[in-house]
């Protein structure tokens, strides 16, 4: 954790104290079944609760479920942690069947494909990927009831009093990921499907949640907001008088939609930037380019959306040429809000973990942290590996330093964009604040100004030649390359993008 041992011991004792207080407050005897979630770092808290329950209320059945509960974890959880039932994938119908099974005192659960789970036998999956998904899922996400956070708000009031903070409510427009090709990703191990609610249904759900809980801030839990329903939803939201604010995850290829989404209340977005080298992006399976990433960052600034993006560092097999490409891109992107460093980790069951040799990884084994945390082996979370780690740490050091410098420069600018333009009829002025604080101005007149404004989105040279036929291609290319050298334009092959964002309010 990076904490000194004494502070860690203090944190552990405070955690134990609040866990004991919480455990004592819950009327466990009133329940017939306890459900515990497994999503990322909830696993240890859920296991700690299960262990205590098994000790104090051994007859009370426990069901585990959640987005990080994969089928290959259930056996270990059953045999080593005494978990009675595990639900992998969409949980609504399996949980309903499990409740009926427990309430009606039957001694087996009938599963869709004829499988059975008997209480007297070792616990079995209530739903498994082997069972045809459709038979244990509700037919359409629009048929789901609106989530009821009443218990959560009651507990909030009980613990923090009536003037507790107003939380950000999680909402869900889609389940799963339609892309599913990022090689480092293990987000959807438990369920490989993909489906979405309609925009209209989501709008109704937001109205109910806002009215019921008096909340205005929502975070979409989707891997990436689906295009069609999100466009319909945010179009509706833009035309209402509600001041909702949203967080969502989107792909860089969605950048064109940012202004429309911002009008509907999108305030923060996480974009899977991950790399600023085209060959590295291809190896990561992102299906994007550096140009698409740069455009997403620019669009977010112009739309007034706070973009949270990571740069994956130390990915196995990265070359010096890819590091150089990354550093060159960072140099151009310095005027924008910075990306955060995210050191590569090997996720259990990710494509890299399944085919380690393809990525130059020689050996994969359980992570020592997990070995220390759990008394049994569980295919979960992060794995340890042997490959070219030391070389990657050395190669990526300058990128780490550049990211730190980028963050400092952004702070010194007061969080504002350092590259903006303003225009009058026949000319345009670009204001460029360099990382050392000095400010440069570039004045473009007549055709030069029109060409620059034409580069508001990625534009191929051929398209520019068609729009400005009186300039030979070589002259246009020379002009644009000069602007790229000055840091005002981004070039990828023969496609150009103006980097300066339109300043609609600040003074020069
Ligand atoms: S990282 Fe995101 S976009 Fe990529 S496969 Fe995973 S969930 Fe899908």
CATH homolog superfamily of the largest domain: tm_1862 like domain
Write out the strand line-up for the largest beta sheet, numbering strands in chain order.
7-10-11-12-13-14
Ions, cofactors and other ligands present here are: iron/sulfur cluster
The general outline is globular
- Give me the Rg, rounded: 26 Å
CATH topology of the largest domain: the name is: pyruvate-formate lyase- activating enzyme
On the 0-100 scale, what is the average pLDDT?
Answer: 91
Q: Count of DSSP E strands?
A: 24
Number of domains: 3
CATH class of the largest domain: Alpha Beta
Pairing-aware structural class of the strands and helices? alpha/beta
Number of helices in the DSSP assignment: 17
The residue ranges in which pLDDT falls below 50 over 5 or more consecutive positions are 113-131
How far the N terminus sits from the C terminus, by CA atoms, comes to 45 Å
Largest sheet, strands/sense/barrel: 6 strands, parallel
Helix content: 25-40%
What can you see in these coordinates?
The protein has 508 residues and is an alpha/beta fold. The protein has three domains: 31-136, 3-Layer(aba) Sandwich (Rossmann fold); 141-412, pyruvate-formate lyase- activating enzyme; 419-502, Orthogonal Bundle (Arc Repressor Mutant, subunit A), CATH 1.10.10. Helices cover 39% and strands 20% of the residues. It is built from 17 helices and 24 strands. The strands form seven sheets. A six-stranded parallel β-sheet has the order 7-10-11-12-13-14. Helix 3 (74-81) links the parallel strand 2 and strand 3 (85-87). The model is unreliable at 113-131 (pLDDT under 50). Iron/sulfur cluster binds at residues 177, 179-182, 185, 187, 223-224, 272.
């Amino acid at each position: 954790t990076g904490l000194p041992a004494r502070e860690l011991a203090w944190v552990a004792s405070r955690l134990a104290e609040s866990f004991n207080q919480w455990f004592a407050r819950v009327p466990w005897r009133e329940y017939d079944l306890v459900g515990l979630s497994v999503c990322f770092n909830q696993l240890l808290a859920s296991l700690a609760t299960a262990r205590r329950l098994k000790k104090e209320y051994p007859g009370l059945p426990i069901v585990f479920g959640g987005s990080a509960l994969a089928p290959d974890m259930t056996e270990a959880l059953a045999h080593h942690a005494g978990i009675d039932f595990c639900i992998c994938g969409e949980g609504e119908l399996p949980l309903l069947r499990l409740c009926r099974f427990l309430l009606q005192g039957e001694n087996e659960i009938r599963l869709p494909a004829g499988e059975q789970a008997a209480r007297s036998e070792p616990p079995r999956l209530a739903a498994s990927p082997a069972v045809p998904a459709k038979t244990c899922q509700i037919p359409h996400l629009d048929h789901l009831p609106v989530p009821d956070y009443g218990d959560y708000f009651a507990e909030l009031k009980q613990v923090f009093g009536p003037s507790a903070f107003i939380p950000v409510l999680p909402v869900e427009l889609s389940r799963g990921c339609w892309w599913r090709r990022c090689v480092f990703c293990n987000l959807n191990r438990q369920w490989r499907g993909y489906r979405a609610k309609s925009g209209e249904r989501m709008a109704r759900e937001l109205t109910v949640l806002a009215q019921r809980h008096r909340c205005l801030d929502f975070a979409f839990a989707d891997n990436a907001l689906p295009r069609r329903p999100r466009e319909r939803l945010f179009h509706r939201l833009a035309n209402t008088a509600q001041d909702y604010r949203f967080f969502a995850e989107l792909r860089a290829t969605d950048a064109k939609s940012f202004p429309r989404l911002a009008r509907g209340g999108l305030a923060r977005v996480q974009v899977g930037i991950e790399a600023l080298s085209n060959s590295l992006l291809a190896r990561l399976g992102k299906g994007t380019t550096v140009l698409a990433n740069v455009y997403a960052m620019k669009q977010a600034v112009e739309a007034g959306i706070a973009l949270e993006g990571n740069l994956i560092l130390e990915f196995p097999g990265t070359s010096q040429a890819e590091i150089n490409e990354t550093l060159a891109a960072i140099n151009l992107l310095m005027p924008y809000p910075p990306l955060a460093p995210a050191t590569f980790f090997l996720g259990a069951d990710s494509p890299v973990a399944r085919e380690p040799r393809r990525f130059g990884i020689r050996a994969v084994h359980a992570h020592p942290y997990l070995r220390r945390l759990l008394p049994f082996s569980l295919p979960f979370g992060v794995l340890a590996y042997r490959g070219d780690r030391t070389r990657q740490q050395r190669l990526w050091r300058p990128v780490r330093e550049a990211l730190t410098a980028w963050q400092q420069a952004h702070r010194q600018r007061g969080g504002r964009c350092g590259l903006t333009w303003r225009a009058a009829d026949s000319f345009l002025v670009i204001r460029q604040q360099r990382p050392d604080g000095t400010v440069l101005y570039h004045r473009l007149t007549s055709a030069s100004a029109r060409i620059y404004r034409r580069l508001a989105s990625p534009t191929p040279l051929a398209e520019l030649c068609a729009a400005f036929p009186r300039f030979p291609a070589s002259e246009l290319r020379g002009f644009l390359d000069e602007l790229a050298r000055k840091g005002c334009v981004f070039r990828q092959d023969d496609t150009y993008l103006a980097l300066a964002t339109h300043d609609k309010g600040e003074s020069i």
